[in-house]
Amino acid sequence: MRRAPLLSLVLILAAPAPAQAADPGRWVRVAATPTKAEYYQGMTSDRAGHLFFDGFTVGGYRTDLQLGEQARTDNLIPPDEPFNHIGDWTFDPGQGARLILPLECFRPGAPNGGNTCGQGAFGVADPATMTWQYRVLLDQADIAKAMWAEISPDGSQIWTSSSADLLAYASADVNPANAGTATIHPVRRLAGAVPPSGITGAVFDGPRLLVAGQNAGPFQIWSIDLATGARRLEVQQVFAGESEGLDRVDALGGELHWQVQPLSIGRPPTFATNTIVSFVRRADARIRLRVTRRTRTRVTVQASLRFLGRDHPLAGARVTLGRSRATTDKRGRAVLRRARGRAVAVARKPPLTAGRLSIR
Predict the structure, then answer these.
(1) Ordered alpha helix ranges (H), 63-161
(2) What sign has the CA pseudo-torsion 147, 237, 259, 4?
(3) Is residue 218's pLDDT more than 70?
(4) Which DSSP string do the residues of 275-341 spell out, in sequence order?
(5) Checking DSSP bridges between strand 231-237 and strand 242-251, what pairing results, if any?
(6) Within a 13 Å sphere around the CA of 223, how many CA atoms are in the beta-carbon half?
(7) What domains are there in the chain, each with its CATH number?
(8) Stretch (H or E) spanning 71
(9) What is the pLDDT of residues 59-81, one digit of tens each?
(10) pTM recorded for the entire structure
């Protein structure tokens, strides 16, 4: 069932266009990394060097931080369940560590907009074996389907959305004792907190919830103050494609990672394959330079970015020193001819802020 293309067409035709705004410049794009086609609907990470992807609609996959696949299950949902779609999921480090799967039903052309069961649920999977454990139903009076889920920093709540409202469920309620026909209810509701771009994926940045979406307008990431529901635009990009999952982890050359898929209606997609677009904060986007080796005629400099408390080698930066020019390798290093007296090495890789280093 190719749910994503059909749903995207419905959204594009039916959703009101969000207000246009310029990118506020809080985050700077640093990389675009292709992924496997199955890594489609969402991504999350643990604290032990693993990434988790789900898609195309029902599979689950674990990789290392360089996308080296370690485990896969092509269908996580048992055949006796009505659900046939997993949204942007989340890793819950509590209760023995588990993956929380936002679940919904979808059949193209069926009544109720294709939502055949009219109900959402949170599934639970084992991240070590990538196998299904159980699911807990969400009461239909609160939500008709679960399209994404994100665990709070303290592990006490699982956030999702219903129409324009954000909902939080107690993570303790998602347990085997509630895996029958009983339903659980949210413990918090933030009315009208969903931004105009909608939500396809989410992740926490400290106490603020970052949410990604597009509806029929530009691709946007908003941050939401969960104490008040007030929101702030963080990122706006002009992409042709489909917005999906969101995660924050030190991987793939950046801190904030956004899945942008190649489904595009009416124009060629920005990225030809499934892609993770990575960002760093504006304050961390200045290139750093240091000398690592000198000879009588050559000097080796290393370019890096510093974010999340450590330096990261920067490949592909163009470095000049006087009339000498070189491009940094995968270790961030470039070898240049030494200039007479004092000269300034300059490293550039737009849209990053250029780095400069005075060399005697």
Answers:
(1) none
(2) positive
(3) yes
(4) EEEEEEEGGG-BPEEEEEEE-SSEEEEEEEEEETTEEEE-TT-EEEETTEEEE--TTSEEEEEPPSS
(5) unpaired
(6) 13
(7) 3-283 (2.110.10.10), 288-359 (2.60.40)
(8) strand 69-73
(9) 999 999 999 999 999 999 999 99
(10) 0.91
